[in-house]
Design brief:
Strand content: 15-25%
Order of helices and strands: EHEEEHEEHEHEHHEH
Helix content: 40-55%
Mean pLDDT: 88
Strand order of the largest sheet: 2-7-1-8-9
Number of strands: 9
CATH class: Alpha Beta
Largest sheet: 5 strands, parallel
Radius of gyration: 16 Å
Low-confidence stretches: 5-10
Number of domains: 1
CATH architecture: 3-Layer(aba) Sandwich
Shape: globular
CATH topology: Rossmann fold
Number of helices: 7
Amino acid sequence: MAVASGSGVRRVARVIVVSGPSGAGKGTLIANVRRRMPHLAVAVSATTRAIRDGEVDGREYHFLTPDEFARRVEAGEFVEHVEYAGNRYGTLRSELERILGGGDSVVLEIELRGAREVRSAMPGCLTVFVKPPSLDELERRLRARATESDAAISARLETSRIEMAAIDEFDAVVNNADVDVATDALYRIIDDATRG
């Protein structure tokens, strides 16, 4: 069952930050919500990680070389950027400006450190934590992806424990035990925040 805590507090926000452990289902829930909310755009993050089969530059991520990423950090082009599991990730200011300038609301799918940076830089944003039903289920989901080594999965699980400990920092929490129920909960939270 999905739990949406904090959703009773009315806050108007055009920037929604969705965070939670890798494998919690953030991307799936966001994709489901966007089918119901065409005015909600996703900010495409930049990363230095290698492109995976089926991914397209500019769709899943803006894939940058480590040197290009570092140059853009030095130029102040990121609203947030972090190193995670050996790669760098960040949200380009130009991506947010493009979306917000067009009148749409924007959702950022980012990890805990990035969420903290955005909250600090944009205090009016709404933060939502997507929680997996358990760490065992999270491990099962990560292994089912078959995209990473055992060492990388172990590192992600350790990071997930740290992220789960920060759950109280978020405005709302969605427990993703059932994707349809969790989608409805996330939809209600975002719809309430963006209706202004």
